[in-house]
Structure formats: C-alpha cells, structure tokens
Amino acid sequence: MGMDVRVVSGVRARLGEALFSRVAGPDGPANRARIHTTPGPRWFGAERPIRVVHGDASMFIGGLRALLLQSLHPLAMAAVAAHSGYRGDPWGRLQRTSTFLAVTTFGTAEDARSAVERVRAIHERVKGVSAEGESYWAADPHLLEWVHVAETDSFLRAHERFGARPLASTDYDAYVADTAKVATALGVPDPPRTRAELQARLAAYRPELRATPQCRETARFLLLQPPLPLVARPAYALLAANAVTSLPEWARRLLGLPRVPVFEDIAVPLTGHVLTRAIRWSMNPPPSGAVR
Questions:
Q1: Model confidence, pTM
Q2: What is the tens place of the pLDDT at every residue in 132-169?
Q3: Please, are residues 136 and 75 in contact by the beta-carbon 8 Å criterion?
Q4: Please, which residues bridge with residue 42 across strands?
Q5: Between the CA of residue 228 and those of 129, 204, 213, 224, what are the distances in Å?
Q6: How far, in Å, CA of 8 to CA of 1, rounded?
Q7: Would 183 be classed as within a structural domain?
Q8: Burial level of 214, CB count in 10 A (0-12/13-18/19+)?
Q9: Is residue 288 part of a domain?
Q10: 219-252 per-position pLDDT tens digit
Q11: Residue 279 falls within a domain, yes or no?
C-alpha cells in the first residue's frame, strides 16, 4: 500500500512538473516564488473572482479558445503572425502570456504595473500592414479591446463549464470587472464591467471578423499540428475539441469547424471534465503527509 502511494505520488509529481514547465518555462519556479511570496499590496485580494478563474485548470481550455477567437480579427491576426513568433516559438509565447496573467492576478501591485509597462512598450513597436493592405498597430485601443473581450469571454466560459468551483452569475460579473482593471492599465479606454456588457461588446465586433488565410493557418497549427511529442497529442486533441465546442456557432462557421452533434454534446464535455481534473490533480499536490 505504501509503495502504491509512493508510485502514484511520483507519477503525480512528474506530470505536474512537466505541465508546469511547458506553461511557465525554465524561469517558472523562480517566477512562482516571486509572484506568490513577495510581500506587498496586490491589485486583487484573495477573495476576488479573478483569482478563482485564473488559478483553475479550465484555463488550459479557455486559453486555446481565446487564441482561436482572437484570430478572427484580421488586424489582430496580422500583428500576431508578423511579430509574435507563435509558430517558431509557441511555447515561449505561451510562457510569456501565462507569466503576465499570473503576475497581474496574483503578484504585487508593483510587479503588475511593471509587467503592464513592458507589454505596452512592446505594443507600441508592433506596427505594419496586413496582407489585405490594412494598417495595424498593436497599441490601437480598438484592437486591444478585441483581444481583451475575446480572452475574458473564453476564460469565463471555460471556467463556467469546467471550473472546480463554478461561480454565481454575480461573481462572473465581478470577474469581468476585475479583468477590466488590467485592460484599462493596458490601454483599453472603457472595457466591459459586466457579463452583459461583455456580450454586447463582442457582438459589436462581429462585422469586422473574418477568417483570413493567416487565421485558418493558425487554426490548423493549433488544432492539428501542435508542437508536442506524440504521447501528449491525444490528450491535447481532447482539450482542443473542448475549446472548439465552446466557441459560438458563428465563430465555428468562420473557422470552418463543423459540428458533430451527438459526439460533442455528450462525449466531448466528459473528456473536458476528466482532463481538467487530471491537470488539477497533478499540479496541486496534497499537503505533506496527506493521502488523496
């Protein structure tokens, strides 16, 4: 019995370390220690909904959904394709994004402000012309807002469906208000502060959205060609399926991702729950001396 517990604990530790390394990068342990142990005021107290949502394994599904949804704005997609290095260094981009989310959600107010200033400086330099001849600038408040609302909606919906502790509707409103603080700091002039405002803002962008060749290429890369070893691809495929099925119908039509009604209405959500529980289990070990 003791040997079985040690074996399970070892598997759990190795899986958790592998996942954390992928998401947080080589500096992950040092960053985690700094973010969570440095004394000082935070933007968000321990009771705030943003901490519940951003600390949950459902973020794995929400993050992939956000990338697919964000790619539908042709100027946002052009900026990402030309400047982010998502194909050449996809894990590096993921690690930078996850670190930014962790710092602004859990870190000190000073570290959060510094992280925002670094991102704003990068956005200022990202300018160009899309393949269709349209100019873009990553610091454009209109583009910043699109990225923000697509991300917030994705994290919210993934947590609502797969979160360990789904929130009340008023707490999801409060989550949107929490994310508005970060968006304002990044340069979004008037981000939504309730879920109803978030949905209205998303709807307002609909006429601008379309699936460009770059967008469809990104979807193929994210869904069919992930930079993962073969052994990890089945689990990733199930995460991706849950991200796709949580997209709105209009977004799926634009991306050319057809529905498979019975399979995705019953089987896919079950796999999402199993996978997020497995991620949660591996990345949140029990207290010393406890057996789960």
A1: 0.88
A2: 999 999 999 999 999 999 999 999 999 999 999 899 99
A3: yes
A4: 108
A5: 32, 36, 24, 11
A6: 11
A7: yes
A8: middle
A9: no
A10: 998 898 887 888 888 888 889 999 999 999 999 9
A11: yes
Q: Is residue 116 part of a domain?
A: yes
Residues contacting residue 225 through CB under 8 Å, at least 6 positions apart: none
Res 287: pLDDT: 42
Residues 49 and 172 sit within 8 Å (Cβ to Cβ):
yes
Residue length of the chain = 292
Sequence letter at residue 234: P
Tokens 């968000």 sit on residue: 44
Domain with 100, as residue range(s), is 16-283
Among left, alpha and beta (phi > 0; psi -120 to 50; other), residue 192 is: beta
SS (H, E, C) the chain: CHHHHHHHHHHHHHHHHHHHHHHHCCCHHHHHHHHHHCCCCECCCCCCHHHHHHCCCCHHHHHHHHHHHHCCCHHHHHHHHHHCCCCCCHHHHHHHHHHHHHHHHHCEHHHHHHHHHHHHHHHHHCEEECCCCCEEECCCHHHHHHHHHHHHHHHHHHHHHHCCCCCCHHHHHHHHHHHHHHHHHHCCCCCCCCHHHHHHHHHHHHHHCCCCHHHHHHHHHHHHCCCCCHHHHHHHHHHHHHHHHCCCHHHHHHHCCCCCHHHHHHHHHHHHHHHHHHHHHHHCCCCCCCCC
Domain count, the chain: 1
CB 108 within 8 A of CB 40: yes
Structure tokens at 2: 């003791």
